[in-house]
Amino acid sequence: MDVNHASCAADGLIALRAKRKGSPCQQDGDSQGAADIEIPSLPEGSPCQQDGDSQGAADIEIPSLPEDIWRLIHSLMPMRDAARAACVSHSFLSSWRCHPNLNFSSEALGLSKNAYGNEELAGLFYSKVNHILKRHSGIGVKKLTIKVYSDYSGKGSSYLNNWLQIAVKPGIEELIIALTQFQAKYNFPCSLLSNGSGDSIQYLHLSNCSFHPTVTLSGLRSLTRLYLCRVRITENELGCLLSHSLALEQLEIRYCNRIVCLKVPCLLQRLISLKVFGCDKLKLIENEAPNVSMFAFQGDKTELKLGETLQIKSLCMVRSGYVYHARAELPSIMPNLESLALKSCKEAHPALADSFTSMPVSLHLALVLLSMCEDIDTAAATLIITHQLHGSPCQQDGDSQGAADIEIPSLPEDIWRLIHSLMPMRDAARAACVSRSFLSSWRCHPNLNFSSEAFGLNKNACGKEELAGLFYSKVDHILKRHSGIGVKKLKIQIYSDYSGKGSSYLNNWLQISVKPGIEELIISLTQFQAKYNFPCSLLSNGSGDSIQYLHLSNCSFHPTVTLSGLRSLMRLYLCCVRITENELGCLLSHSLALEQLEIRYCDRIVCLKVPCLLQRLISLKVFGCDKLKLIENEAPNVSIFAFQGDKTELKLGETLQIKSLCMVRSGYVYHARAELPSIMPNLESLAIKSRKEV
């Protein structure tokens, strides 16, 4: 058995992890990537509050491996898990003292910004970081991230300087200091980067602080990426920094308002990406670096001297009146351009039929859209020209009144329909607002995404009732102008308080949109136990035959033996759904193409029987179903199994083919060590979280 990663434990919590996840347990039901196991977060009553404290560490018996292997395993763990492993195992204690990845943020330290006042949060943050670093040698740190979200005051400078003195040593590769309070009064100590400590840094990220490098700066010979946001630095100081960063490949500067003239020296032979946004005092950018192939800029009054432009392949410009210049000049000065994105206000409406005709074919066939800002009748316009279909704005979702007949490159109608179908829904609606060429394809746009985010509704700016009213109004407005034909994907996420009166709206939207041909249906009511009964009749009469992915959360779902659809269903995700085992059995018996089944927090299921008819089922995941007493699997080809629960009897049937196992279950480690090698000999990926383990 090849178990790739390691044990991670605290106060009896043991986790054997097969692979690290960027964001644990995202409840989106999307299990693409067969071997990706998500481990639900457990209530952490006491999981090693003393991050990094090894007092009372138990000598947990773990498989015998060379010390350098365990050190590598430990280095791959998230910092909190690494600290917890050191709490309970002497095997990990020595490697914790030189753990390479230190991430100090409210999220990483488990501090909820909503649970504390600003001063209390700051105090807890400083205390926890101090506690951890007192037990860390400072040796071997490769990546240091410090994100201070609480109110930052001058008194924090001594803490921050002390942390940097401990952790920034020769060998460090990434240094991220992000003070999220605007204009935090912190002066980054440049002396830290001298005497060899900065020679190994490859990525330097600073935000909301002062930074004053001088000609005496000697480090940063390995720096390849530099990111400065709201940093108080002058052009001379930046020049000193750049002159000592000859390996630099990517430079990004945002909202640094003390820079008046940005000169990029020819010494930066490796620089390929230059991005400058929102530097209001900037009057001149003069680039002499010879190999810049990506340039992005936002600003109106800055003079641009970009030097050699033949090699530029990607250009992004947010600049008033730039479209005319782009049409006139870019084909000759940037003939190798492959990706172009322009946003321009106060632009006269250009005739676009012959625009950019001398550009490469890949760019000439790019989407050319004219969309109005805020209101269809305003004089300001935004022209977006991009083959990457950049998302951007117009609040007239789905409203074609006053659509202008914008002239766009001549392409067959099916090509334009395809381009339109690939746009995010809001942009597709906006295109239909201003161009009759897109209006007909909008009436059968295939991807409908109805959520507060998609509509630009700020949950903090509206009361719950007002937000719900705006949401219902916008969806109604769009669907009245949509034929309901051709919908491939329908996603409805209602974040506002859902009440019974919303059922009529929701049923009406489903009647319009769920037609034969639909492939994905996602209904997510985020209010716990929302009183909505999903209409199973919707899936009959051919409307459900084409659905490949069905995602339901926080509703009732009562399929019966008369259900006739879902013959194409490959992925089923149910979260907090009120459904019984008999109803689920009816559903599964009509879903013979099912490949992935995930069930979360469905507390009306007592016995889950997976029939042998599901020959294609490869992934079975069940989490948090408290009333569940038995899982009996007869599907013969399940290779991925994930489960959370203590009292459920598991009858997994044939286990020889299981390659990936995730278990969150008390006392399971002993069983795993004793039984798994014989009953699951082909196991490749194993993740275990176990409490109350001997």
The CATH class of the domain at 67-310 turns out to be: Alpha Beta
Please name the CATH topology of the domain at 67-310. Leucine-rich repeat, LRR (right-handed beta-alpha superhelix)
Percent of residues in helices? 10-25%
The strand line-up of the biggest sheet is 1-2-33-32-30-28-26-25-23-21-20-19
Distance from N terminus to C terminus (CA atoms, Å) equals: 22 Å
Q: Globular, elongated, flat, extended or rod-shaped: what is the shape?
A: globular
Q: How large is the radius of gyration? A: 29 Å
Mean pLDDT: 76
Beta-strand fraction estimate = 15-25%
* Number of E-type strands: 33
Question: What does the secondary structure layout of this molecule look like, with pairings?
Answer:
Blueprint: E1 7-10, E2 13-16, H1 67-76, H2 79-88, H3 90-96, E3 101-104, H4 118-134, E4 143-148, H5 156-167, E5 174-179, E6 187-188, E7 203-211, E8 225-232, H6 235-243, E9 250-254, E10 261-264, E11 273-277, E12 284-287, E13 294-298, E14 303-305, E15 314-318, H7 322-333, E16 339-343, H8 361-364, E17 367-372, E18 381-386, H9 413-422, H10 425-434, H11 436-442, E19 447-450, H12 452-455, H13 464-480, E20 489-494, H14 502-513, E21 520-525, E22 533-534, E23 549-553, E24 556-557, E25 571-575, H15 581-589, E26 596-600, E27 607-610, E28 619-623, E29 630-633, E30 640-644, E31 649-651, E32 660-664, H16 668-679, E33 685-690
Parallel strand pairs: 3-4, 4-5, 5-7, 6-7, 7-8, 8-9, 9-11, 10-12, 11-13, 12-14, 13-15, 15-16, 19-20, 20-21, 21-23, 22-24, 23-25, 25-26, 26-28, 27-29, 28-30, 29-31, 30-32, 32-33
Antiparallel strand pairs: 1-2, 2-33, 17-18
Protein name: F-box domain-containing protein
Pfam families: F-box, LRR_At1g61320_AtMIF1
Domain F-box: 65-105, 411-451
